[in-house]
Amino acid sequence: MSDTWTITKRELRSYFLSPIAYVVGALFLGIGAYMFFQIVFIEAGRAAEARMDAYFGRLPMFFLVLVPALAMRLWSEERKLGTIELLLTFPVRTGSLIMGKFLGALLFLSVLMLLTLIYPITLAALGDLDWGPVIGGYLGALLLAAAYLSLGLFVSSTTQDQIIALIVSVVVLLLLYYLPGIAAFFLPPALIDTVMLASPVVHFQSIARGVLDLSDVIYYVVFCAFFLFLNHVTIEVRKWAG
């Protein structure tokens, strides 16, 4: 556990020292602020929680690029700089390395999301706000970010080119994002609901409505575990091959 925490702190520190992370963070906060105030003015006649629903509804597409942009460097940079061989010689288990990188990136994303609390606080100051759906929205956003991050981390472990890692991650996440529509177009009605459950966005929408179903949480845990396991396999293969 101490090894995992050491790697987590290392990754978190590297984000705060990375210009790319600051650029991505600034874009996240800037575009997020634009979306929020656009919603506030366009939907001024709606209840405060309805406007937050509209904000959270746009996050899955926004995260499609943001999260892979933060994840692309996690392993690719190590491979490009040649530091991955040194890292793998440390007396640290592969699982601790992977979890440390995953948690470090997730903590950085959490910091960015915490800064957006100014949006619901602003709406609460302007009128009554039901905090239940807002809390659900933030919880759903964190779980969605974790899922996207686990996939991006795995893809990053397969290439030393950060741009390729970014593009592949975005393409895969786009397919998952549009999976419900693709299923409705190609599959018989009996299979549509089953296939839709494979999309992380469907589960996010459920949680963001303030409905916390254990099955949605389990889905995200399994999703993250699956791609972290693939990441583990990739690193182990490289360790034994090298």
What does this structure look like?
The protein is mainly alpha-helical. It has one domain. The chain has 13 helices and no strands. α3 packs parallel to α8 and α10 runs antiparallel to α11. The radius of gyration is 19 Å and the shape is globular. The two termini are 26 Å apart. 40% of the residues are buried.
Note the main attributes of this structure:
242 residues; mainly alpha; 13 helices
* Beginning-to-end CA distance, first to last residue: 26 Å
Q: What is the ordering of alpha helices and beta strands?
A: HHHHHHHHHHHHH
What's the total count of β strands? 0
Helix content: over 70%
Model regions low in confidence, pLDDT < 50 over at least 5 residues = none
Q: Give the strand content.
A: under 5%
Oligomer: single chain
Largest sheet report: none
Coarse structural class: mainly alpha
Categorize the overall geometry: globular
Query: Which value, in Å, is the CA radius of gyration?
Result: 19 Å
Q: Number of helical segments?
A: 13
Instruction: Tell me the domain tally.
Output: 1
